Input
Amino acid sequence: MNTESLLEQARLGCPAAIATLINRTLSKRGARARAKVRSGQFEILLEAPSTPKQQPTVEWLVKGLSNLSVSGFETVTIYGRAQGQTQPDWQQTVPLVSFTAPIPPNETPPDETPPNETETPAVDPAPDLTQYCFVRNLSLLTIELLAPTSEIAQLVNDFHALSPAEKLSVLPGLDLAFRSPEKVTTDGLSPNPQVWLQQLLEIEPSSARKASIWLSRYCHNPEATVEQVSRVLTKA
Output
């Protein structure tokens, strides 16, 4: 999906599109953002190799978000934590101001370590994804493989950022997406998985094969796979 399409989705309040725009900068530093709407509230979870410092991080995100005319939300709650942790170290709710330009691609988020201020957002239970596999050779689920490309790593990372319900809405159609992408439509999906699936459908056929392997590995062992792709994004 091109930048113009992503911006349009982001302005409509699509968390996946907003996270994708933010991650275009964050992924260069091994960090990532996840966005979701919970109980009508817009939330962003920012993870970095070390816990991001609260105030500079919030200011950076608000500056980026303020460049979008996001509809439907008056505030955003931002959470920060170190990668590998299950609980955020801090959270802050700030007004969501609307302007009309894309998120600045060259501005860099701060990476200092802040003090701990824990208050935890609700976490949806992780679904059992082991029934989903898109490769015939099951040894590919567990054997040691060469690291994926940054494109595939980002795709898996973005899938990981979807909510459990969003994952389950898109997974049943992935087998067809890998075999006959021209027959797949994103109609009927909510905005987050719709944006993600469109990105999958637009990758090159050679990359689609690798994506099928790494998404299968994710369904087999999410934690181990996320750890592997995070290392790739850290080096990118």
Residues 138-235 form one domain. Residues 98-107, 111-125 have pLDDT under 50 and may be disordered. The longest strand covers residues 41-48.
